[in-house]
Amino acid sequence: MASTTCPLCKSPxxxxxxxSSGMKVALESTGQASxxxxxxxxxxxxxxxxxxxxxxxxxxxxxxxAKNKVMLWKNRVNLVKQGRxxxxxxxxxxxxxxxxxxxxxxxxxxxxxxxxxxxxxxxNSSKSKELTVITTVYWDLLxxxxxxxxxxxxxxxxxxxxxxxxAFCPIFPDIVRKADSFSRKAKNKDAMKRxxxxxxxxxxxxxxxxxxxxxxxxxxxxxREFRDQKLLPTFTxxxxxxxxxxxxxxxxxxxxxxxxxxxIVRMILQQIIxxxxxxx
Length: 280
Ligand SMILES: [Zn+2]
Hints:
By secondary structure, the chain is mainly alpha-helical. Among the domains are: 1-52, no CATH class; 205-280, no CATH class. It contains 12 helices and 4 strands, in the order βββαβααααααααααα. The protein has helices at 21-29, 42-49, 54-88, 92-109, 129-145, 152-166, 172-182, 189-202, 206-212, 218-231, 235-257, 262-279; strands spanning 4-5, 12-13, 17-18, 39-40. The strands form 2 sheets. It has a two-stranded antiparallel sheet. The chain has a two-stranded antiparallel ribbon with strand order 3-4. Helix 9 crosses helix 12 (262-279). The protein is elongated. The site of zinc ion has 8 residues, from helix 2.
């Protein structure tokens, strides 16, 4: 279906291709760039760029892609802000669209297939703050999808991601507590219950994560491995984990609110780790 006209050859076409600034530079080198329209049809694009070498073409396309990624990455903050504002206005559908766009941007920037966003990508400490943003986005999406029973499947998908990212996020204990009270008035009670049940054993070491302000601190990693390898396989170990998880969210939120006690907790934990290393 012809819906527009190529400004160069004037033939009716269905869509036009943008001539990127990089391609313009490449065309200048072949003497064709004078008075080019910003967009042309497929065949004009082919004949124009036919004289540009393959290598240059590839490089130009890569550059345009990289530029686009930088722009998207910068814009992602606005998408989250917009999502939060819409959420506050109870414009849930629109908020979900903003949040989904944000996730899409991350997928594009990191060359991922849909749904493949993983915390590992952000393990680099300069990017670890993004983990908290992503966690809050999934938490909002979970509540948005709770507005209709139709969305229970979407809720399970979001819950899975929330668990995956939440384990890396210092505010996850707060989210679990909020989810607990939210579940009482939830529309999709079963989906919320499934989520909360899964938080039982998959939670991070809340106290340690809060004390070291990072899920990725070597101390936190050690404690996590100790839990999975030494405690989880035994009955007594599982009892210890249950008790720890019952009390640790309260301690962790207290520590997040009273940051001055963190150095002391760090010292205590380091001593405990030293002793654990001796016996294991
Ligand atoms: Zn044309």
